[in-house]
């Protein structure tokens, strides 16, 4: 098949690495891609959110199958547009992608299907939202209903802080239309984990669990980011927790969407809080996480493209995946200043030395080529992934590779995987 991959981040580089290795793939094209993806695919400068442009590109290149990486084009209806043009695509249609596009939509689905999650209310009026917060007390969570680039959630420790969050979202419109409606919910207590399943509208098969590190600095300090590293498997997701997640969260959600006439096909990502009540849903995402994808895909022995085709075609009932028993750990290298303002164009050396470390992969996120030079072109720039018999072994390899990269303007956390290592010790 001629395959088109949509996206430009570290998640998409991991997907490109796996898709290009499939015997089903004759040629891999990526829109728009990055400097690392260009080593696996032919990159074309069409933005992921340009739906007419992606459809036109797929027609011009005679694409047989499209894999959509990021959430924004999925929520905007890219899969609908491709399928209506007669082009097979992997990912949920717009109606099902509302699981990520609207937090209120997801919470209402949880109520209908008795999916364990925090108590909540939805508001389109700021005054009513504040009154609810005052009556409920703090700590409490304020969420912009729509897509906000991972920044639309405030865990407020006081009523005053929650009121300010409502004003920022609903009155000041810091997240644009995403904050026209807010969801106010109780704070869940426990340990967070990410759980992934491959879905074909009716059936689901596990893709495993991971834990990421959202805070920018060691010890979970500083502002939230898109993710500074991850590891898989996650020891907190025991076999029993995994079964509960499939039975109480993933499968009921699939059933509810199918009953509504909007079946979900693609990767369903459940953000979990694991505590005394077992796994509870924080939120759904409708694609692989980033950087979780960079630790899940390297552990997969099966043909990823074949799995995606089976999911799109509704053929997962008798499908099985084979996994590497080893752990994988990814350290994200980011530009100084991230998640705030960063300086683009700084030169990066030593990537080939990092790739020479045994069982290490280097996934590009925000990079570009300027002649022969590799330069930074974003906040999160590289993902250094290593495999090992244990999380501790994978961690040691990953940091050995990180230390071989010469990039004074970059930084990383030095404690990725520490929680899992402490638990297993």
Protein model, in words:
By secondary structure, the chain is α+β, with helices and mostly antiparallel strands. The protein has 14 helices and 23 strands. Strands 10, 11, 14, 15, 16, 17, 19, 22 and 23 form a nine-stranded antiparallel beta sheet that branches. A five-stranded parallel beta sheet has the order 3-2-1-4-5, with helices on both faces. It has a four-stranded antiparallel beta sheet with strand order 6-9-7-8, with helices on both faces. α7 (126-136) runs antiparallel to α8.
Which terms would index this structure?
alpha+beta, nine-stranded antiparallel beta sheet
Number of strands: 23
Q: Might you state the CATH topology name of the largest domain?
A: D-amino Acid Aminotransferase, Chain A, domain 1
Number of domains: 3
Estimated radius of gyration: 21 Å
Mean pLDDT comes to 96
Counting DSSP H or I runs of 4 or more residues, the number of helices is 14
Query: Structural class, please?
Result: alpha+beta
Question: Roughly how many Å apart are the termini?
Answer: 46 Å
Which stretches of 5+ consecutive residues score pLDDT under 50? none
Largest β-sheet summary:
9 strands, antiparallel
Percentage beta strand: 25-35%
Gross CATH architecture of the largest domain: 2-Layer Sandwich
| Helix share, percent | 25-40%
C-alpha geometry:
globular
Q: What is the CATH class designation of the largest domain?
A: Alpha Beta
- CATH evolutionary superfamily of the largest domain: ATP-grasp fold, B domain
Summed up, what is this model?
This protein has 425 residues and is an alpha+beta fold. It is built from 14 helices and 23 strands. It has helices at 10-20, 51-60, 71-76, 78-84, 94-101, 103-113, 126-136, 159-171, 239-259, 293-296, 304-312, 351-355, 391-402, 418-424; strands at 2-7, 27-32, 42-43, 65-68, 88-90, 120-123, 140-144, 153-156, 182-186, 191-200, 204-212, 215-217, 221-224, 229-232, 265-275, 278-285, 327-335, 347-348, 360-364, 367-370, 373-376, 380-388, 410-411.
